[in-house]
Amino acid sequence: MITKMDKYSFILLSDETAAFLGKLQELGVVDIMRSKKPVDAESSSMLEKATAIKKVISILEKTDSDAGTDEMKEAAADAAMPEDTVQGVLATVSEIETLKARLAAVEKEAEERRPWGEFNPADIRKLEDCGLTVRWYKVPEKKFQESWASTHALQVVEDDGSHVWFVTVSGADDEYPAIDGETEAPQGSWKESMTEAGRLKREIARAKGMMLRFKERIPVLREEYRKEISGLDLYLAGATGELAADDMLTVFTGFAPHEEGGRLCSEFDRMDVAYFKEEAAEDDNPPIKLRNNRFARLFEVLTGMYGMPVYSEFDPTPILGPFFLLFFAMCMGDAGYGILLIIIGMLLKKTKGGMARLGPLVTTLGTGCIFVGIILGTFFGINLVEASWVPGWLKKCMISGEIAGYSSQMVLAIAIGIFHICLAMTVKAVCYTKRFGFKANISTWAWLLLIIGGLVIAGLALPGIISGPAAKWTVIALGIVSGLGIYIFNTPGRNPLINVGAGLWDTYNMATGLLGDVLSYIRLYALGLAGGMLGGAFNDLAMMLKDGIPVPGLDWLGFTVIVLLGHALNLAMSCLGAFVHPLRLTFVEYFKNSGYEGRGTPYNPLTKTIC
Asked: What would the pLDDT profile of 168-182 be if each residue is shown by its tens digit?
């Protein structure tokens, strides 16, 4: 099946692309495409606005609602909220940062003023007005001298065991011996600083409360961001003009599996990159990643050889796999060669590089050859039906003899071809109806009804399960209904005469095409028969050489050489034919009748891992 994809649109300045691609490479799941678009005033403004919205959403998402105290909520309850959320959030964030910086400075100032205690700066100024000079000191306690009190008018204000804070008062004309440790006078009291700190904390609480209220607008911001990015994407798609190479935006379009969406969005949000996510549609031509079970996955390489399906198409691998295995085994037609292929596949698995990946496929093909080879009755060119050493119960499982004068194995190949083509037509009818609607595929369903219905009626009438008259009238009814769909309603709303002409042309193509397609499946019988006969010829030649050499030992040597070389050559030619012709039956007969296009692009994510 085809993995569901999400489409991501990224818009960056060209000088930011290298770092962005490096991060995408680390993620390893985004298949990226890019193109450059000219920047003009309009697109620059749109990008700037989208980036600002994205930044605000990121800020609000990091705002912890649970950390909001009742004080914050009450402080912001009556605050006027700006209509422009983006500018309001950015202004509030700036205000909070400014208030926090001011609070830190005030708290530091309060810590410096704390030892001086409470005082009135006005009283200090009165002393200075009287001609007295007040000096302020802070010295380590071990340097403080009690004798200073006898030479200065000194008052100790604080002693915390580490430092001593004191002041001195002297007249303007007094001789004043200098003391080391003089500091600047505090500009205010400790209480004033604490009052200011309290006010700043209340302001911060109010601003944080506003951020909590802004957070409620995140859904609206996300919708606004989506509209801005969508509008920018649309604008750039039609942008024209010739500008300098430096004035360029790089627009990336990336695709990633839907199941990776949660992880990728989290990463992109952390990058603060402008992006837009939506479900990929067929018109986006997303890359194709196939997702199949272990068996079908072996044959995805064959699907890739023809071409990946488009996004709305179906993955042909689950049907291609078992039929290719069957066709390959029938073309090989030898159980002994199947054993050799299993051995080759096991050896390939032990190698390194691309050949190791073919090991499981070769082993699977070899297993199919063993079972089909036994049913067809060939083992290293030996006809098992005629071999006396083969148990009778096993011979009953083999297909031999004739049906209506034709080889049973040839009839089997034709029957498989008919079934394969009918399956292809059924797949086409179902998938085309899903893609384009029933009305556009009435003719497809009509042909399907006529062909498969006719085959079913014939299969029931020949052994007498239904009577001849019943079969006759059923076929007539099928013909009438199918004829109306093929010749009259093949394109509803068009001129009936044109529909009839189109139906006749379609009939000619069907009659000639289907017959040739069915006969192509005879190659399954012919290649298997040729390989078995050639293997038997090498066996006969080896026996003739053995019987013709009278020297003991030398006769068996000649026998062994002929058998080994002959079957090695036959195995190589059979493998080539068994690979090419089933591919042709699949790529031509099946894909043509199933309507498979194969125009998709393989999923190739940007990654650091080199396979």
From this structure: 888 877 777 778 888
Q: What is the rounded average pLDDT of the residues 321-339? A: 90
Q: Which of 557, 590, 574 is nearest to 417 (CA)?
A: 590
Q: Which amino acid would we find at residue 34?
A: R
Closest CA to 57 of 267, 274, 221: 221
The 3-state secondary structure of 55-91, one letter per residue: HHHHHHHCCCCCCCCHHHHHHHHCCCCCCCHHHHHHH
| Residues with Cβ within 8 Å of residue 397, at least 6 apart in sequence | 374, 375
The two structure tokens encoding residue 113:
């003023």
391: left (phi over 0), alpha (psi -120 to 50) or beta: beta
Contacts of 115-121 spanning 24+ positions with Cβ under 8 A: 115/157, 115/158, 115/160, 115/163, 115/165, 116/157, 116/158, 116/165, 116/186, 116/189, 116/190, 117/157, 117/158, 117/189, 117/190, 118/189, 118/190, 118/191, 119/189, 120/189, 121/187, 121/188, 121/189
> Any idea what the Cα angle at residue 300 is, between residues 296 and 303, rounded to 5°?
125
Confidence of residue 531 (pLDDT cuts 50, 70, 90): confident
Q: Are strands 5-13 and 275-279 parallel, antiparallel or unpaired?
A: antiparallel
Q: Report how far apart, in Å, the C-alpha atoms of 514 and of each of 84, 406, 430, 490, 523 are.
A: 69, 21, 19, 19, 16
Look at residue 248 in the predicted model and tell me its pLDDT: 60
Report CA-CA distances (Å) from 215 to 12, 86, 221, 541: 26, 11, 10, 89
What pLDDT is recorded for position 610?
Answer: 43
Partners of residue 249 on adjacent β-strands: 13, 37
What are the angstrom distances between the C-alpha of 34 and each of 17, 240, 304? 10, 17, 24
The answer to whether 37 and 251 are in contact (CB under 8 A) is yes
- Residue pair 379/385 in contact (Cβ under 8 Å)? The answer is no
Q: How far is CA 398 from CA 367, 384, 393, 394, 533, in A?
A: 17, 9, 9, 7, 17
Q: What is the mean pLDDT of residues 222-240?
A: 70
What does the alpha-carbon distance between residue 586 and residue 331 come to, in Å, rounded to a whole number? 14
State the first-to-last Cα distance of the chain, in angstroms, to the nearest integer.
23
pTM of the model: 0.63
**What's the length of the chain?**
611
Q: What is the pLDDT of residues 259-269, one digit of tens each?
A: 888 888 888 87
pLDDT in tens, 287-318: 888 888 888 888 888 888 888 888 888 888 99
Q: How confident is the model at residue 241 (pLDDT cuts 50, 70, 90)?
A: very low
- pLDDT, residue 233, reads 65
Triad 406, 408, 410: Cα angle to 5°: 75
Q: Return the minimum-mean-pLDDT range out of 224-228, 260-264, 492-496, 512-516.
A: 492-496
Q: What does the pLDDT look like over 48-79, one tens digit per residue?
A: 788 888 888 888 888 776 555 566 666 666 66
Please report the beta strands in 303-436, taking only residues with DSSP state E, as ranges in sequence order: 378-379, 382-383, 402-403, 406-407
301-304: which pairs have CB atoms within 8 A and are 24 or more residues apart? 301/357, 301/361, 302/583, 302/586, 303/598, 304/602
Say how many C-beta atoms besides its own lie within 10 A of residue 383's C-beta. Answer: 16
551 φψ region: left (φ > 0), alpha (ψ -120 to 50), beta (else)? beta
pLDDT, mean over the chain: 82
Q: What's the CA gap between 280 and 8, in Å, rounded?
A: 9
Contact 491, 453 (CB under 8 A): no
